[in-house]
Amino acid sequence: MSEGSKKQLIEEINILRQQKNAIILAHYYQPDEIQDIADFVGDSLQLAQKAAGTKADVIVFCGVHFMAESAAILSPEKIVLLPEPEAGCPLADMINVEELREEKRKYPGAKVVCYVNSSAAVKAESDICCTSSNAERVVTSLGDQDIIFVPDGNLGKYVAAKTNKKIICWQGFCPTHHRISKEDVLQSKKLHPEAKILVHPECREEVWREADYVGSTSGIIKYAENSPAKQFIIGTECGILHELKKRCPDKEFFFITDHMLCPNMKKNSLEKVKACLLTLSPRITVPEDIRKKAIAALEKMLTV
Ligand code: 13P
Hints:
By secondary structure, this protein is of the alpha/beta class. It folds into 3 domains: 3-89 and 265-286, Rossmann fold, CATH 3.40.50; 92-173, 3-Layer(aba) Sandwich (Rossmann fold), CATH 3.40.50.10800; 176-255, NadA-like (Rossmann fold). Helices cover 45% and strands 15% of the residues. It has 15 helices and 12 strands. The strands form 3 sheets. It has a 4-stranded parallel beta sheet, with helices on both faces. The radius of gyration is 19 Å and the shape is globular. The termini are far apart. The protein binds 1,3-dihydroxyacetonephosphate (13P).
């Protein structure tokens, strides 16, 4: 797209955003041009908080399906739009409600902590949700109770190690993060020996054990911003580079591998944002019986 047409498209989006009293929320993994037009860019927790608190009538959720669904659970009176309806999350699809019910039957009495990367139906069957930035706090808040953690096994293991708790982990994973191996990290460290290694807890244990810092996307950004180090090896999706470069223009960032791209996060475009504002579709809604149960798990998380 030429610079002229892009400028025009952004102007049209801005007019529509005003006319419809809409807010555009974007995750750090979104394409750069989407992050640039968003009213707010953040990690999963920050986006859920923003969606819960906004006065806008329309929320354009530039992320993947479970994120927009969480916004629809928290703000049922608002119109929640996902510009690209096919933007799913393979990790969220790795457990369904029947499988979770079966797991609960196997471990009666255990509390279910469900990572926000999950369907509304799975949230509805859970006691409390968490994101990567509050998972430790959420698990700690449950005291001595046994915990079933779904669907991300890597994050579950990480939280178990941090909290010293016995956690029954579902073996789901994010294909983008799970693909990185310890050898990739060591190779990258050889190339950039001075760099600090910052990874997302969706990475495998053998990877996060090698890291200087493990945290959510916003945690990684904060760490890079506040660290005296000048070089960083990053173990999360490549979209984060946009914010890292903005906040730390004098620092250097290298990704552990060249394949750190989530194809679903990249399905969105400026054209799709404009189209969804124009037509107020595709709209994400959640059946009221599921929503009522799912909101309890999400609100519990927001109070923790
Ligand atoms: P954050 O909560 O760290 O933004 O992570 C979201 C996510 O889906 C990671 O794959």
